[in-house]
């Protein structure tokens, strides 16, 4: 039995998988210190048989069995946390770790391959609490030697956030994540309206409030600019947009319109993620299947 986890900034999802199929799925809020995290793992797997292997996708990048945070503002204890060691000690079986954007990107690629539509070069971008991604080149998922591949939220863009904030949690400035993540949309809306506004509320406001629409269009332009830059480096056939902000009403169309206004050669197809909130788990399960077949 495979035990699959998707560990995000706010929640941990867990699935009991047999024969590549999810038999049971559970979810719990993420903890913000190691002891609490160990309890979350125990709660999620209570009553289940011992797994033969564990596969995890998680926020942060994976280097040498440890997770590292690019954005240090998200979960403090996560940076340098020995996740593989902790899970191996807990479950006494092999543990595989991968970044959540990379896993979700592979999940989206595999879903297209199953329909006979797999592009050789696909970039997945998730616009959510943060901005992450997964890159498939020549039909192969790229993790990178340090696990950093496709951390697209920390690509620099020329545009500046509308509230003037430039410093990113990664230590650099001018990152896409500071303009187009859900956190960034809420921050810019809060500064403009002088009260807390969630990114979901901002999308609802945009129907009647031009200033709300402007924040969203600006974010879409920043995403389009980043896509144009990636495209010129790796020659993309398809860009898949996911995440709560990416799949919010009209966001894909706004990104498409911004791309259309650019003089882009051989523009890639722009599509919506089709795997929903479980794209990470889907990718992790597909990668496990491939390891089993080898
Ligand atoms: Zn950054």
Please give a handful of descriptors for the protein shown.
about 290 residues; alpha/beta; Nucleotidyltransferase, domain 5; 5-stranded mixed β-sheet; 10 helices; globular
| CATH secondary-structure class of the largest domain | Alpha Beta
Q: Level of helix content? A: 25-40%
Low-confidence stretches: none
Q: Find the CATH topology of the largest domain.
A: Nucleotidyltransferase, domain 5
Q: Main β-sheet, in a few words?
A: 5 strands, mixed
By CATH, the superfamily of the largest domain comes out as: ATPase, nucleotide binding domain
Strand order of the largest sheet: 3-2-1-4-7
Question: CATH architecture of the largest domain, please?
Answer: 2-Layer Sandwich
Rg for CA atoms: 19 Å
Based on DSSP secondary structure assignment, what is the total number of beta strands? 12
**Fraction of residues in β-strands:** 15-25%
Q: How many domains comprise the coordinates?
A: 2
Order of helices and strands, N to C?
EEEHEEEHEHEEEHHHHEHHEH
Number of helices: 10
* Shape annotation: globular
Cα distance, first to last residue?
Answer: 17 Å
Bound molecules: zinc ion
The structural class is: alpha/beta
Pfam families: ROK (PF00480)
Protein name: ROK family protein
What features would you describe in this structure?
It comes from Duganella qianjiadongensis. It holds the Pfam family ROK. This protein is of the alpha/beta class and 294 residues long. It folds into 2 domains: 2-101 and 277-293, 2-Layer Sandwich (Nucleotidyltransferase, domain 5), CATH 3.30.420; 117-273, ATPase, nucleotide binding domain (Nucleotidyltransferase, domain 5, 2-Layer Sandwich), CATH 3.30.420.40. Helix content is 38%, strand content 22%. The chain has 10 helices and 12 strands. Strands 3-2-1-4-7 form a 5-stranded mixed beta sheet, with helices on both faces. Strand 2 and strand 3 (21-29) form a beta hairpin. The longest helix is centred in the last third of the chain and has 25 residues, at 210-234. The protein is globular. The relative contact order is 0.15. Zinc ion binds at residues 154, 168, 170, 172, 175, 177. Zinc ion (ZN) binds at residues 154, 168, 170, 172, 175, 177.
């Amino acid at each position: 039995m495979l035990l699959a986890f998707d560990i995000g900034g706010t929640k941990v999802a867990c699935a009991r998988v047999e024969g590549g199929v999810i038999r049971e799925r559970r979810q719990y809020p993420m903890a913000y210190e190691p002891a609490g995290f160990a309890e979350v793992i125990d709660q999620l797997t209570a009553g289940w048989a011992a797994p033969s292997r564990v596969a995890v996708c998680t926020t942060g990048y994976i280097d040498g069995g440890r997770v590292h945070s690019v954005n240090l503002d998200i979960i403090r204890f996560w940076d340098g946390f020995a996740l593989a060691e902790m899970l191996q000690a807990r479950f006494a079986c092999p543990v595989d770790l991968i970044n959540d954007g990379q896993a979700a990107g592979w999940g989206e690629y595999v879903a297209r391959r199953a329909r006979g539509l797999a592009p050789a070069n696909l970039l997945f971008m998730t616009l959510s609490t943060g901005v992450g991604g997964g890159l498939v080149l020549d039909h192969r998922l790229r993790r990178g030697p340090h696990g950093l591949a496709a951390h697209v939220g920390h690509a620099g863009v020329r545009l500046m956030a509308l509230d003037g904030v430039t410093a990113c949690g990664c230590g650099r400035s001018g990152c896409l994540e500071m303009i187009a993540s859900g956190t960034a949309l809420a921050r810019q809306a809060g500064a403009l309206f002088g009260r807390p506004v969630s990114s979901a509320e901002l999308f609802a406001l945009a129907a009647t409030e031009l200033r709300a629409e402007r924040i969203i269009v600006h974010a879409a332009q920043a995403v389009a600019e980043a896509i144009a830059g990636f495209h010129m480096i790796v020659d993309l056939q398809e860009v898949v947009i996911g995440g709560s902000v990416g799949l919010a009403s009209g966001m894909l169309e706004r990104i498409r319109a911004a791309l259309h206004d650019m003089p882009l050669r051989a523009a890639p197809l722009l599509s919506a993620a089709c795997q929903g909130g479980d794209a990470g788990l889907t990718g992790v399960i597909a990668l496990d299947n491939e390891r089993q077949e080898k």
